[in-house]
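pinned: reference chain
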Amino acid sequence: MRACICMAVIAAAVGCAPSDRYITISGYAQGGTYTVKINLNGTDGMIKVPAETVRDSVDAILQNIDSSLSGYNRNSLLSRFNAGRTVMPDSLFIDIYGHALRVYDITSGAVDVASALLYDIWGFGFTDDSMPSDEKVRQMLAISGMGRLRDDISKAISHDGTLEPAALLVSEADTVLPRLNYNAIAQGYSCDVVARYLYSIGVKDMMVEIGEIFCDGKNPQGKPWTLGIDRPVDGNNDPGAQMHGIFRVPEGPHGVVTSGNYRKFYMRDGKKYSHTIDPRTGYPVCHSLLSATIVAPDGMLADAYATYCMVIGLEASKEFISSSPEVEGCLIYDDGGAFCTWCSDGFSLESI
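pinned: its structure tokens
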């Protein structure tokens, strides 16, 4: 998650029903843009909160997330915690830690926010390092991971509400302070936090896009929200420029997230090193899976599961998605130089 600079604008569009009035709020956040589309005709008639107030509230939420959880904001709670300083954790800091532990358990350690040191040494974290030696990987692997940390952050918070990094360690003999990186779940989590606010003011039709997506209800045409799935071509850094297919999101609340190795990588001696690090081995993954688009009950889970699939590879991802009742997915993989696609039963990909 990159630094948050919010500058929102509001645009309006008339929906299919006379009482429907859709607006779009957009701006800059987390190193990119965000877009929130909502129907002002809510669950109990027209929403009483003015559009400008909705815009200001979304801006405030994103600024609060940045101040708490961004590793690129040097003054955030996370950055100060990672620097070994005592912090006063807010509700966001406490909440996402609990979600991260849950994801760590579900994925058997394949998605591990306490592996920041590993991401850093490969140049995909909060530093510009790259190509560490095998010895360096072994050293960082030994002092990384949620397995070193408490399973309840509240037990580490002192009576005055402060948190010392050392207090999160399970073993008092462990002298290496923990470092956290929430990039695998932060944008999906951000979508969920914004969505919770929108629900609280009576919104029923929404799409929240902050790098990742959360949506519910219907679009301005009264139909399911429609999303494009990017073709995972190396260097395809412009979302929507090269499309692989179209997906119509099922009815109800869903997070939809695509993770892939075609935007963040570097080449050394003819070999591609992707940004997906397996925290169990300490090395970038190397397999045929190019991208994973996951549909889950919320944005945070969709974000985490998309990363999980990119860690475990094609066949294990097929098994995971097929055996998870609340998860659907689309996997695009390389087969002898050709793009191939696998979709779960509940994921209908329309060709363009």
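why pinned: Residues 1-7 have pLDDT under 50 and may be disordered. The two ends are 31 Å apart (CA to CA).
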